[in-house]
Amino acid sequence: MATLLYRIGRFSYRSRRLVGAVWLAVIALAGVAAATLSSPTSDSFAIPGTESQEAFDLLQERFPGSSPDGAAARLVFAAPDGGTVTDPAHQQAIVDAVTEIDAGPQVAEVVDPFAAGLVSEDGRIALAEVTYAVDFLSLEPETRETLEDAADLARESGLRVELAGTAVEPEPELGSELLGIAVAALVLVITFGSLIAAGMPLLTGIVGVGVGVALVTAATAFVDLSTITPILATMLGLAVGIDYALFIASRYRHELASGVPGDEAAGRAIGTAGTAVVFAGLTVVIALAGLAVVGIPMLTEMGLAAAVTVAIAVVIALTLLPALFGFAGRRMLSTLPGLRSRAADPEDDAPRLSRRWAGLVTRHPVVALTASIAGLAVLALPMLDVRFGLPDEGTYPADTTQRQAYDLTVEGFGPGFNGPLLVVVDGAGSVESAAADVTEGLRGLDGVALVTPPELDPAGRTAVVTVVPASGPSSPETERLVEAIRSELAGADAPAGAAVLVTGTTALFIDFSERMSQALLPYLLVVVGLSFVLLMLAFRSLVVPLKAALGFLLTMAATFGAMVAAFQWGWLTGVGVDEVGMINSMLPIVVVGIVFGLAMDYEVFLVTRMREAYAHGEPAVGAVTTGFGHGARVVTAAAIIMISVFGGFILNEAADVRQIGFALAVAIAVDAFVVRMTMVPAVLALVGDRAWWLPRWLDRLLPDVDIEGARLTGAQEDQNRQRVAVNPSAP
């Protein structure tokens, strides 16, 4: 592989105009495709194979005008102290607000609080429910404005009005996280000491993200993609795109500073660092594509879209980057006044922090390993209290209208009104009698606050009963209530000839969390197993992939420990990380997939240089120090860039995006600086030559991909000997 990539690097350098023109054409075509084929994203929450999804689909079929998947809004009206919502002025203001919304666009149904009896016992609070005919991403600005205007109209009478529901949710979008690009630019300038060299990874990273997101946008014409999919693709594509180019550019400058001609330096950089990029990229792609094993369409789409963006970043690093090297020439070695890039100076043998650190770790590997494991164990302790779920509006910041609407609903009607359950009774004939029996059974269950009379479809084959739990939508008591309904009323005690199903947003979330927990172990086995084989193939070793996998498990434990401390215990509330009381149940698989791929990046980049030094004759411990000295500075820069890009997402308004950004930033920090830059050299120093051992029978079976570029170096030495034989005066 190293030889093939060497040729690609030389060709791209020499044919830089052709390669540049091809990529300009690709960018233009991707942009045209995105502009002409794009369709609105969709946030449909489908979980095939679950009872709640089956019931949801049945409701769509039997109650076609109910828009169960449409956007919804709740207006919570609260009278001032000493007053009630039934006071004539207040009641008229509420009626006017409801009438204005009902006359607005895209409305499917509006439930008047006085007609439906949605007024609290003390008369202070009333609820108006609005259902729209489209999902919240398809809501027109005029529709949202009508909702806000109606709320303002009611406020003029002295009422307090708060809004909740999907119709008032902000659409996730890029913004503050772009601050990560500015930090990345600063890190690159400090690392290389050159604006030109720093601009190369930044340019190729942005190009890769642009092409990837354009293709994802164009794909919305053929498949439904969630709103967060382009954000995740941007997050990962930008981080890995910059990092991959950083590693190759660093190696290219090293070769160029050694006096190697530009095309030869580009070939060597792509043949060595580029090989590591290919394996690192494959690991990330495997981890992301592995999300398909969960069986949830939204996660599969997110994983595949991000995997495509990462693959594009790899191709750009192998082709466009060496072409840019050709355009820049030896100006890649230029430095800014006061800045000096050691990565470009192969003659710099002065003690550096990275070499001193590697020397310290390899001299005291047991101490370094013990301290690292103990520190990660302490950080992981809060994970014993982890609580997974899908946060509801009760976990929003206290100053948001959604949270205030949630609290007012709890005050006036109880927590269950924020997450009612829908019990569907379906039968071959009339289900009126069966629905009555189910309704009576529901009233006898513990944890039920209210049961409404059954509502039948026009054909009389299906009935829906609304159940209001006594507990909140994300509480364990509500989960137990759902289990009780399914085990008792939908089990052996179900009416003859009728099927009883539980659905609603709360039930969907419960089923989603259960599906995620069931899929975690198979996902880990698939991703870790495939990546183990890939690393074994790359390094001809059993110790290296085993160590990589165990180190990753420590990283994840520490990451979720930090998540519990921040989001459940509220330890970082003072610095802007809001307490939400639980960890999003989608996070374990998503973060495991992303972090495993990225963690293997650092493993590949660091260990490749160590393996390269060992393959070229250095003793095992010396090779660890040498390889660490070559790679640590660039790995540090790469980690800081990733932490900055991911950390910027903590400022996003969407709670799930904030948690993903926090988890990824913490995981990269832990994995890069503790696991890969401390535990890796310690373990390799302890095992010595055995780190590179592979059974002979297995060694013969596996193809030799030459990740350290040994064949490439050998071929270059043969060429030099031949040149000297022909011209003895040649250097």
TrEMBL record:
PROSITE patterns in UniProt:
SSD
Stretches that traverse the bilayer: 178-197, 202-222, 228-249, 270-296, 302-327, 365-384, 520-539, 551-571, 583-602, 634-651, 663-687
Cited Pfam families: MMPL
Q: Extract the signal peptide range.
A: none
Give the membrane topology, semicolon-separated if more than one: Multi-pass membrane protein
**Coiled-coil ranges per UniProt:** none
Residues forming the SSD domain are 185-327
Q: Any idea where this protein resides? A: Cell membrane
Q: Which GO terms describe its cellular component?
A: plasma membrane
Record's keyword terms, sorted: Cell membrane, Membrane, Transmembrane, Transmembrane helix
User: Has the keyword Protein transport been applied to this entry?
Assistant: no
Family to which this protein belongs: Belongs to the resistance-nodulation-cell division (RND) (TC 2.A.6) family. MmpL subfamily.
Question: What is the protein name stated in its UniProt record?
Answer: MMPL family transporter
State the organism named in the record.
Jiangella rhizosphaerae
